[in-house]
Amino acid sequence: MKQNDLRTIEKKIGYEFNDKALIMRAFTHASADACATKNYQSLEFLGDSLLNFIVAKRLMEINPNAHEGALTKNRAAIVSKEPLAEEIDHLDLAKFLIVGKGENLESISSQSKIKSDLFESIIGAIYLDGNSLEPCEKFVLAKLAPLFNGDSKHKANRDFKTELNEYASRHDLQVEYVLLSKTGKPHEPIFEVEVKINGLDAGKGEGKSKKEAEQHSAQMALEHIN
């Protein structure tokens, strides 16, 4: 990798390395060097753990009252391979990947899994170079900011029933869903469901299916609880 390429990478990721060998390693595919201390695989392992922690920490900061189920789903959506790969595409970094002789760079670097691994390996390299979580957080939060704002198409849909069940489990409560009515035309039914918590009415919801109505009733119950 040329010095100009190194400087370009550093500019794109917003971090200047003290140890240039680390950024070289972060971009080295196993086909180029099978040695664990030469390719990015162990850096990706470290980066994956750091990414999960950074994202969990940030979600807790911006959603302090969120339930565990919602936090878990949001984190999973953010750290999944698709948004990470898309950010690598946005930064145009895949072209700097170092692959083995005879390997097709375009074929390897076009894979979403490879690009998401590259994103995580960069995090690992930044951590080892700076010996601190702070520059890693700066990189992750800057590059994935839209995901935390809820602007991503990868953001998982909330499962209100699961959230309500988890809340009930933590507080030793009983949840029951009661079908109140089914109206409308046979091919366009409308279901109305009420959710009861310990026998008390907690919320009502409608939907084109019983499942959808239960989700809406659980959502109403959670809004009342919050």
| Strand adjacency order, main sheet | 1-2-3
Oligomeric grouping of the chains: single chain
Structural class: alpha+beta
What's the name of the CATH homologous superfamily of the largest domain? Ribonuclease III domain
Count all strands and give the number: 3
Question: Shape from CA axes?
Answer: elongated
The pLDDT mean sits at 90
Fill in the keyword field for this structure.
226 residues, alpha+beta, Ribonuclease iii, N-terminal Endonuclease Domain, Chain A, Double Stranded RNA Binding Domain, 2 domains, three-stranded antiparallel beta sheet, 11 helices, 57% helix
What do these coordinates show?
The protein is of the alpha+beta class and about 230 residues long. It folds into 2 domains: about 5-150, Ribonuclease III domain (Ribonuclease iii, N-terminal Endonuclease Domain, Chain A); about 160-225, Double Stranded RNA Binding Domain (2-Layer Sandwich), CATH 3.30.160. Helices cover about 55% and strands about 15% of the residues. Strand 1 (about 175-185) and strand 2 (about 190-195) form a beta hairpin.
Task: Give the gist of this structure.
It contains eleven helices and three strands. It has helices spanning 3-13, 20-26, 41-62, 68-79, 81-91, 105-109, 112-130, 134-143, 145-148, 160-170, 210-225; strands at 175-185, 188-197, 200-207.
Architecture blueprint of SSEs:
Blueprint: H1 3-13, H2 20-26, H3 41-62, H4 68-79, H5 81-91, H6 105-109, H7 112-130, H8 134-143, H9 145-148, H10 160-170, E1 175-185, E2 188-197, E3 200-207, H11 210-225
Antiparallel strand pairs: 1-2, 2-3
Helix pairs in contact: 2-7, 3-4, 3-7, 3-8, 5-7, 7-8, 10-11
